[in-house]
Every structure is written in C-alpha cells, then in structure tokens.
Design goal:
Strand content of chain B: 15-25%
Distance between the termini of chain B: 21 Å
Order of helices and strands of chain B: EEEHEEEHHHEHEHEEHH
Number of helices of chain B: 8
Radius of gyration of chain B: 20 Å
Helix content of chain A: over 70%
Structural class of chain B: alpha/beta
Strand content of chain A: under 5%
Radius of gyration of chain A: 24 Å
Number of strands of chain A: 0
Order of helices and strands of chain A: HHHHHHHHHHHH
Oligomer: heterodimer
Largest interface: A-B, 25 and 31 residues
Chain lengths: 285, 268
C-alpha cells in the first residue's frame, strides 16, 4: 500500500474492496451496540436505544401476534396462521396494496408521455400544464386531497399519483423525443401507421428506460405513501411506525425501518431482473 | 413522365435565415441510379429528405409519379447513415417488420392467417439474408451485436423486401471502412440491377459516386450566402472504366469546390 492509494490510478485488490465496503456497516452497528450497552448499564429501563435482544423479541411479537387493535387470537394455531394474522403481515399487506395500485396508475402516465412526444397536437395540449403541475409540491396538496376525497384509501393513492405522475410523464416524453428521427421515418417508409410507430417502434425501444425511470422513482412513491399513511390511516407500515413513536417503541421501529428498506430493495431488484429478462438487447443495464 | 420531379425547391434554415437549397430543378427517370454529390453543408441530405417527405420545401414542390407526398410512406424506401435498424428486434424481425406491419394491424396479428404469412415472410427474409451475404446464425442476433457493415446490409434488405419503387440512401456507407465500402458498393449495384429500383444515393465521396451511379448530380453554392444549385448533372458510362474515372473525378472536384475553381460547369 503505497502513498498512491488515494489517487485516481489506485487499484484496490479484492481484500481491500471487501473490507472497505463493509467497514461503515460494521462501524455503524458497532457504535450503536456500544451506545446501547452504555445506556442500559446506566438505566436498564432505557427505551431510546434497544439492545439487539429487545429488537429481536419485539420483531418476533410483531410477526407472531396480531396488532393491538385486533382481537387476541385464542387457542393453539400453526405458524402460518399466526403469521397471516400478525401485525407485521397486516401492515405490510395494507401498504403493499396501496403501493401497487399507485404503480399500476403510472402506466397511463407513460402512455401519455409517449403520445405527447410523438403527436404534436397532444404535446402542445398537455406539455405546459404538466410542466406547471410538476412544480406543485404534492405534500402541500394533502389537506386538499383529504377534504376532496376523504381520509380513505383514495386520497392516499391520489397523493402518490399526483406526486410522481408528472415526473413519469415528463420522463417518457423526453425518452420518446430521444428516439432518433431516422427510426420513425424508417418505420413510415416500411408502411407503418401512426399507432404502429407509437407502440411497435417507439414504445418497444424506450420500454427498458421507462422501467428504469419508474424504478428510480420508487423512492418517491414510498415517500408519498408513508406521508399519507402517517397522517391519516388506520393501518400500514408508516402508520405503525407513527403509532410506535408515541409510546417510544424503538425496539420495534428500528426493525420496521429495516424491513421497509428490505422490501424496497427486493422490489428494485425484481424490477431490474424483469427489465433484463424482457429486454436482453438493452446494453446499458 | 419521369418518376421524380423536383420543381424549383427552395429551403432555408435557422435564424437568421440561411438558404440551403436555392432553386433545384431535377427530373429523375425510373430505373436510374442517381448519386447526389457535394461538399458538406451543400444541402444534398436536405434534398434527399425532401424527396423522402420528412421535410417540406419553403417553395416549390416534389412530385413522385405525378403526386405530391407530404410524408414518408412505402413508395420510398430509406437507408440512413446511422440508426437504421430497430434495436429491440432481431435481424430477422427487422427484415420482416415492413411486410408484417403493413399487412397486419393490431388485431390481425391474432388470426391464424398471420402465422401462416409470418412463416412465408421469414423464409423470404432468410433468402434476403443470403443475398446480402449474412449467415443463418446471424438471424437471431440483435443489431448491437453486428458490425457497422453488417448493420447497413440488413438495413438495405429491410428496405428492399418491401420492393419500393424508389430507394433513398443517405450517406449509407460513409461510416464504414474502405474495404467494407467496396463490398457494399458491389452489393448495392448488384441489387439495383436485379430489382430495377430507382436509387437516389447521397455521398460526399466522388469515387463512390462514379462507381455506383448512372448519373451524377453535383450541388454547390455560387456564393456563401446563396442556396445550392445543381452545378453539374452528367451521365456516367456504365460500367465506368478506370481511366474515365480519373478524368471525371478531376472535373467533379473542380465543380464541387468552386472556391478553388471559380466557374461552374453546366449540364453536360
């Protein structure tokens, strides 16, 4: 290890790569455990920094026992029964349902962006308004949504849609305009009609980039979902976290946060894999 | 009556307006192989795009077989310099795209007739693959796996399978190395002879224009602020002998770069 290891020409070997990339994880976990143990030695009733054991217990309860607002499950039941009636499952299911409804509603946004990019009249009609709408901070609309749609599912899903749709529309609009003009002209010379060009030439070409764009916007979808849930909901992962905050349930909040991160990672990974399998010709991964 | 009539077209771009084409008049008979020649920026690609229909002249009009066509359609095939193939489709699908999309609409693709016809089209596509010098193993490849020369071959097959009356090629070989270029020139010449398509070929390479075309049209500006006009329009002997080429190259260079020559030579 010469003095050159911080320079641009440096080439870390595998051992260094491994150590360096896991270091911050280890340091973070180590620091946390050290602080938790110190606090617990002083005050065994400490609730701010739960020990690993407490977190594991809390999570086990979340997975095996129903939520506090539900009835207690009587009698002996199998593992799967307890799991499917547990708090974690109920919250995960509620949040996931809203998440996937919102994702499905993003598909019309992609189609609109495509048409805006290809058909000049459609573009003129929508572009200015979409650009304006993009600037509205969706969260500031939340009270209006609650008044208009009530505090039920619809307003939460509308919040996600209003927050993320303009970005998706503009993304697919730009991707459509990025398709080389030669491709469109070539398609016409081969006898394609307008809708053939839109769906069999342009949409097919931009599809992997559109999927990537949606994937990158998953974080925004989750953000709006959680904002809606925390403010006005009776179930869902963010609702549970907000509830736990009120009685300082850090032993459950931290595992929940990690669980959400894991779910998001899995969805992202699934989308990446699906994209690769559907579009083997797309080299930019 | 000639297949393509270009009547006094005038095109200008940009702000402030700069004239690109300043009054072009051409008539092209069916079955010709016309090469459009000129230095960069002389408007030869613009003229090709006018015939193609992807651009409109500010003045004048273009008649294809007596009719004005205001947008690209299947009467004129097109081979651009780049982006000629659809990246999301295999080589075979690229070639069969034209007939498939023009014969079957969205719901037509669900009928059994489609599958029968598709098999016929794929057989025809395999025959085209052979003609352009590719192998059967190349049929399942995607365009990004092919070299530039192979991509252009497929692009030519893709256009010709529709049997257009006119084929427009815009600097189609300019991005290829000289060895590949020679092969492609031979291929196009041979395809032209067997199909009898009228070809309009844009190039800045004088040698290529002479080897390929039966007629060479040179565009050049008389002055930097004027649009290009037809500087020279000559018929090339077919085949063009090597000695004749040298003489013609010299003559064309004088015309293509009038700043060094001074005068313009009229139709000869």
């Amino acid at each position: 290890m010469s003095a050159g290891f911080l320079l641009i020409h440096a080439r870390p070997n595998r051992a260094w790569s491994l150590v360096l990339s896991w270091f911050l994880f280890a340091a973070g976990i180590g620091a946390y455990l050290w602080v938790a143990n110190a606090r617990h030695r002083e005050n065994p009733e400490d609730r701010v920094t739960p020990t690993v054991a407490q977190m594991v217990t809390g999570m086990y309860n979340a997975v095996m026992q129903p939520a506090e607002e539900d009835e207690v499950v009587e009698g002996e039941h199998g593992f799967w029964y307890k799991l499917s009636h547990s708090m974690l499952w109920k919250d995960t299911r509620a949040s996931s349902r809203r998440f996937f409804y919102a994702l499905v509603l993003l598909i019309p946004a992609v189609i609109l962006g495509l048409h805006m990019g290809l058909f000049p009249y459609v573009g003129e009609f929508f572009l200015r308004f979409v650009l304006f709408f993009d600037k509205i901070v969706a969260l500031s609309l939340l009270p209006i949504l609650f008044i208009a749609f009530g505090i039920d599912e619809l307003s939460k899903i509308m919040l996600i849609v209003i927050g993320v749709t303009p970005t998706i529309i503009l993304d697919s609009f730009n991707l459509t305009r990025g398709v080389p003009a030669e491709q469109v002209v070539k398609a016409f010379t081969l006898g394609a009609g307008d809708f053939d060009v839109a769906y069999r030439v342009v949409l097919r070409q931009i599809a992997p980039r559109v999927l990537n764009s949606i994937r990158l916007n998953l974080k925004a979808v989750m953000l709006f979902l959680f904002a809606g849930e925390m403010i006005a909901s009776t179930d869902g992962l963010a609702y549970r976290i907000a509830l736990l905050r009120r009685h300082m349930g850090m032993d459950l909040i931290i595992p929940y946060v990690l669980w959400v991160a894991l779910l998001l990672f899995l969805v992202d990974y699934a989308m990446r894999t699906v994209n690769r399998k559907l579009h083997p010709w797309f080299e930019e991964a | 009556m000639s297949l393509i009539r270009i009547e006094d077209v005038f095109v200008a771009y940009g702000s402030p307006r700069r004239a690109v084409l300043g009054g072009i008049n051409l008539e092209i008979a069916e079955g010709c192989f016309v090469c459009l020649l000129g230095q960069t920026g002389c408007g030869k690609s613009t003229l090709l795009r006018l015939v193609l229909g992807s651009e409109r002249p500010m003045r004048g009009r273009i008649l294809i077989d007596g009719e004005e066509h205001r947008q690209p359609d299947s009467t004129r095939g097109y081979v651009p310099q780049k982006y000629s193939l659809f990246p999301d489709k295999t080589v075979l699908d690229n070639i069969t795209f034209g007939p498939e999309v023009s014969e079957f609409g969205l719901f037509g693709r669900l009928t059994p007739a489609f599958f029968r016809r598709r098999r016929q089209l794929r057989d025809e596509a395999y025959r085209y693959l052979q003609r352009i010098g590719l192998r059967e193993s190349d049929a399942g490849k995607f365009p990004h796996q092919l070299s530039g020369g192979m991509q252009q071959r497929v692009a030519i097959a893709q256009a010709l399978i529709k049997r257009p009356r006119i084929l427009l090629m815009d600097e189609a070989f300019s991005a290829l190395d000289s060895g590949t270029r020679r092969e492609m020139q031979a291929l196009v010449r041979e395809l032209w002879r067997s199909t009898g398509t009228t070809i309009l070929f844009v190039t800045h390479n004088i040698d290529e224009a002479l080897r390929l075309g039966t007629r060479v049209v040179v565009l050049a500006r008389e002055a930097p602020d004027l649009g290009s006009r037809v500087a020279l329009d000559l018929d090339v002997p077919d085949p063009c002998g090597e000695d004749a080429i040298a003489g013609l190259v010299h003559r064309l260079e004088r015309v293509s770069y009038p700043a060094s020559a001074g005068d313009m030579v009229e139709v000869g």
